[in-house]
Inverse folding.
């Protein structure tokens, strides 16, 4: 079958090939390969099959995000309450009693909202996807797809990837909105009940305007970028670990837990990388002032 | 004309810490068009692996594979290519139906995927016909988990036939079935073979299948693939292990 290796490549080409293979054999390489293959499959959908593929993506979005809505809402309510309660005990004392809205932007919209949403989706939907794909491998269903001429990347990975990205965007928006609104009401309740202890006037207009004033163009960019990248990383981890299961059922729980752990790590690392953008943005702003 | 032929095919398993297991040692085989071939042998000899290699699910280490005279090159010998280019379908031993799809949708899946221009009514008509031909049309709305092994095999065969393959590979289609189910499944396979003129290659421990399907038989033993025999020629086989195996199988049967 022509399996002999032909020795006609120069050494720089061989070195580059070696580097490429090294990269593709590493976990980041595998994840990026899955993401690029999935995106390529999405952008090259056969127009005649668009309706079927679109339905698959909607179903996957529903599974990844909407079914996790109750869980995400509960955590958002708790986080909003917690953040504002802690802030109310400290901020007025140091003269920042008017900056609750700003704090919510920094804590909820910029950092904890996207990261916690990603963690919840990774723990719930990412784990379920990895287990589903792992079981498909064990039961030869993934092989069966290939023997029918159906590319598992197009049939399984692409809808999960796009669905994951869309779901994370929607869930992040809901999470942040709920946390901010609940934060306001929690503060309002606290100041009403314990007005002797908290010398803070919570006004919705003031709270909302301080939020809007704190939002930078970078925040609006990150509103799309973070969920998209986190969603892609979570589904890529789930697909990578799920589809790498061989035909041994004992590998499924291992793949599931690895998928969750590596999703957490990937999300935090990506968040760290993206936070550099804020530093550059800040330095750029400082430079303009100077 | 040859439907499938393999030349000097070699394959072995080598797991770390384990001895190298040779599965195929310069194996050669020719299957004519519309022919049925049963691959027999003791358990663990690699019969299913040979079938997986033919389906593109495993890569041989060396040798050549031809489908209808066209060589499947190493870089394109994948299950996707083999299915799409050479029109090879595979029936898994465990049926391997997609667990979250109903029986109807399982059979419709390859049609909807590869023929998106077809109307839903025409897909429905073809799938209903396929399910009826395998006598499982009553189970169209069931999920796979709710069905018995015999029904699942029939659905798997219906799904494999959906794209009208030229070559049908089957891994132990009658294993675990009772006499009645086995007989009816064989009659259906024979019927489909005469209707669709597909080449059938199946792995089996069930020698009488070869007689009922008028199939050739070959044996895989310690990496060596024997020449092919008809059921009546088995007694004349010069390999002693074949005679022993046939005796054992007939005794068990």
């Amino acid at each position: 079958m022509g399996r002999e290796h032909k020795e006609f490549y120069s050494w720089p080409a061989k070195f580059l090939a070696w580097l490429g293979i090294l990269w593709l054999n590493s976990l980041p390489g595998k994840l990026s390969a899955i993401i690029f293959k999935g995106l390529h499959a999405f952008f090259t959908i056969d127009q005649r099959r668009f309706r079927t593929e679109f339905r698959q993506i909607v179903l996957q979005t529903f599974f990844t995000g909407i079914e996790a809505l109750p869980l995400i809402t509960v955590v958002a309510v708790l986080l909003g309450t917690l953040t504002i309660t802690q802030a109310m005990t400290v901020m007025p004392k140091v003269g920042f009693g008017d900056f609750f809205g700003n704090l919510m932007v920094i804590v909820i919209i910029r950092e904890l909202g996207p990261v916690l949403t990603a963690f919840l989706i990774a723990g719930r939907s990412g784990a379920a996807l990895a287990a589903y794909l792992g079981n498909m491998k064990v039961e030869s269903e993934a092989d069966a797809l290939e023997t029918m001429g159906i590319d598992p990347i197009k049939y399984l990975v692409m809808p999960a990837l796009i669905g994951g990205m869309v779901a994370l965007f929607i869930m992040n928006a809901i999470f942040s909105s709920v946390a901010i609104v609940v934060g306001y009401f929690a503060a309002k309740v606290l100041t009403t009940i314990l007005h002797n202890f908290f010398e803070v006037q919570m006004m919705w207009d003031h709270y909302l305007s301080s939020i809007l004033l704190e939002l930078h163009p970078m925040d609006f960019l990150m509103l799309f970028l973070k969920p998209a990248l986190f969603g892609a990383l979570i589904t890529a981890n789930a697909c990578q670990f799920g589809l790498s299961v061989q035909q041994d059922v004992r590998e499924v729980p291992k793949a599931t837990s690895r998928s969750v752990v590596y999703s957490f790590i990937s999300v935090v690392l990506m968040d760290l990388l993206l936070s550099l953008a804020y530093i550059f943005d800040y330095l750029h702003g400082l430079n303009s002032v100077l | 004309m040859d439907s499938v032929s393999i030349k000097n095919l070699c394959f072995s398993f080598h797991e770390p810490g384990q001895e190298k297991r040779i599965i195929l040692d310069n194996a050669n085989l020719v299957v004519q068009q519309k022919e049925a071939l049963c691959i027999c042998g003791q358990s663990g000899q690699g019969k299913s692996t040979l079938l997986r290699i033919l389906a593109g699910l495993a890569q041989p280490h060396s040798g050549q594979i031809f489908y209808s005279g066209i060589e499947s090159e190493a870089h394109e010998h994948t299950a996707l290519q083999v299915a799409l280019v050479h029109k090879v379908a595979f029936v898994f031993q465990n049926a391997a139906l997609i667990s979250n799809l109903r029986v109807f949708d399982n059979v419709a899946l390859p049609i909807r995927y590869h023929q998106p221009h077809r109307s839903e009514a025409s897909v429905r008509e073809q799938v209903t016909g396929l399910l009826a031909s395998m006598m499982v049309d009553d189970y169209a709305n069931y999920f796979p988990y709710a069905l018995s092994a015999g029904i699942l095999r029939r659905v798997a065969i219906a799904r494999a036939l959906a794209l009208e393959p030229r070559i049908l590979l089957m891994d132990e289609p009658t294993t675990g079935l009772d006499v009645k189910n086995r007989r009816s499944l064989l009659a259906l396979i024979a019927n489909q073979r005469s209707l669709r003129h597909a080449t059938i290659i199946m792995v089996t421990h069930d020698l009488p299948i070869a007689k009922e399907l008028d199939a050739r038989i070959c044996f895989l033993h310690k990496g060596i693939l024997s020449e092919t025999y008809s059921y009546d020629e088995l007694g004349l086989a010069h390999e002693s292990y074949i005679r022993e195996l046939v005796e054992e199988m007939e005794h068990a049967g």
About this structure: The interface with chain A takes residues 55-57, 60-65, 71-75, 77-80, 82-84, 88-90, 92, 94, 96-99, 109-110, 112-114, 116-117, 159, 163 of chain B (CB under 8 Å). The radius of gyration of chain B is 18 Å. The longest strand of chain B covers residues 2-13. The longest helix of chain B spans residues 179-196.
